[in-house]
Amino acid sequence: MYEHILVPTDGSDVAEAAVERAIDLAAKYDATVHALYVIDIDATTLSLGTEQVDRLRQGKLDEMPEVKAEAEEATGVVADAARDAGLDVEEHIRTGSPARAIRKFVDENEIDLIVMGSHGRAGLSRTLLGSVTEKVLRRTRVPVLVVDIDGEEADE
Predict the structure, then answer these.
(1) A Pfam family for this UniProt protein (predicted)?
(2) Which of 43-47, 48-52, 73-77, 93-97 is modeled with the greatest confidence?
(3) Contact yes or no for 118/89 (Cβ under 8 A)
């Protein structure tokens, strides 16, 4: 049923809450897990200079070790969990608008299921910028399993 399961991550606790569900499904269906970190160019512009953002847009991630390390740490959490479960896993880093980059990745990689947290931002920034999960839900044609960290905690 599922051959390729995508786990978009921003390294947050909310994103990590989705990992267990994705690994469980991947194990049941012997699916490959794809861990995806998207460097949000719009958010990065606020903290980096124009020259550094241009490097990201040109795909020169190796010239930005701090940004690359953050991305690799986030995808590494997913990859380690998948490997511990004996699953095939691939780590990916992209730049751009997170929701758009996720949708593009899905289209280009024959993803069968997306498993993601309910939100990565909180408060005013989430309201102003919109929920990545909501945008993915509304604009993708593959099933999306949304893991709500608040609901997870309430069950305990």
Answers:
(1) Usp
(2) 73-77
(3) no
User: So what's the pLDDT on residue 60?
Assistant: 67
CB 87 within 8 A of CB 32: yes
DSSP-assigned states of every residue in 19-38:
HHHHHHHHHHHTPEEEEEEE
- The CA-atom distances, in angstroms, between 9 and each of 48, 51, 54, 117 are 21, 26, 23, 8
CATH number assigned to the domain comprising residue 138: 3.40.50.620
Mean pLDDT of 95-115: 95
87-90: long-range pairs with CB below 8 Å, 24+ = 87/23, 87/26, 87/27, 87/30, 87/31, 87/32, 87/33, 88/32, 88/33, 89/32, 89/33, 89/34, 89/35, 90/32, 90/33, 90/34, 90/35
pLDDT given at position 123: 54
Q: Which domain holds residue 129?
A: 4-155
Average pLDDT rounded to a whole number, residues 70-91: 96
The answer to whether the Cα torsion of 138, 122, 149, 11 is positive or negative is positive
The pLDDT, as a whole number, for residue 129 is 38
User: Beta strand pairing status for 32-40 and 4-8?
Assistant: parallel
Q: Find the mean pLDDT for residues 137-155.
A: 75
